[in-house]
Write a structure and sequence with these properties.
The structure holds 2 protein chains of 2 kinds.
Chain A lengths: L1 H23 L1 H6 L4 H29 L2 H26 L6 H24 L6 H13 L4 H7 L6
Helix pairs in contact in A: 3-4, 3-5, 3-6, 4-5, 5-6, 5-7
Chain B lengths: L2 H15 L1 H13 L9 H8 L5 H13 L2
Helix pairs in contact in B: 1-2
The chains are: A mainly alpha, B mainly alpha.
């Protein structure tokens, strides 16, 4: 009886361990099936989103003489740019790149873009539609992303 | 002379000498990645997002304006 209980505990433990690993690694499981063209589209759309959102932020900051807003957008722009160049280099070297790193970098870029959008909207500026499109595209690419972007910019959630 | 000029020259010669060879050459050229900066996604991103963007110019202008 005791042996059967131990066996049952062991079986439950193994199943829990496997489920836990699958849950933690869910993003990576998805990443391996992401086609290169989808990654390329996400990088380009996010880049355009960052460019247009930062241009809108610059125009709004100048119009309202808001230096703090401009500084916040500039910092987010720099962070997003660095991440996007990293992901783009990974897409260029698709066969040898670590796709886990790529997802982390696109997540960072998306979060930085969310920051620009949130700051701009909070100060009464208009967020270009491509920003929301970019969040949705990145969410399709890596399902672990929306949690970050949706909190950074609520408009990014479906 | 660019790579495209060389390719077009080769195509012209091939088309006059042996038409099927021209077709084959055209397909090879079409499948070869372009040598423009857009062949690299990283270069494309750097072009879309320059180091000095309008937001940095706005920061500098506002700092000057506010004397910071």
């Amino acid at each position: 009886m005791r042996a059967r209980s131990a066996l049952l505990f062991a079986a439950v433990g193994i199943v829990a361990l496997v489920l836990g690993m699958l849950l933690l690694d869910g993003c990576r499981v998805f990443e391996s099936s992401v086609p290169r063209e989808a990654a390329r589209a996400a990088v380009l759309t996010t880049s355009e989103g960052v460019r247009l959102a930062s241009d809108a932020c610059a125009a709004h900051a100048l119009a309202t003489h808001d230096l703090e807003l401009a500084r916040k957008c500039a910092r987010a722009y720099d962070g997003a740019r660095l991440s996007l160049v990293t992901v783009a280099a990974g897409v260029d070297a698709w066969d040898t790149a670590d796709r886990g790193d790529l997802t982390c970098a696109i997540r960072t870029a998306s979060s930085e873009l969310g920051l620009i959008a949130r700051e701009l909207e909070a100060k009464g500026g208009r967020v270009p539609p491509i920003v929301v499109d970019s969040f949705r595209l990145v969410a399709e690419l890596a399902p672990c992303v929306p949690a970050d972007t949706a909190t950074a910019y609520p408009g990014g959630a479906r | 002379m660019s790579g495209l000029d060389v390719a077009l020259g080769l195509l012209k010669i091939a088309a006059t000498v042996f038409p099927p060879l021209a077709e084959w050459l055209a397909s090879v050229i079409a499948s070869t990645p372009a040598s423009s900066p857009h062949a690299s996604l990283a270069a494309q991103v750097r072009e879309i997002l320059p180091v000095n963007a309008s937001i940095h110019a706005a920061v500098r202008e506002l700092e000057k304006e506010q004397g910071r």
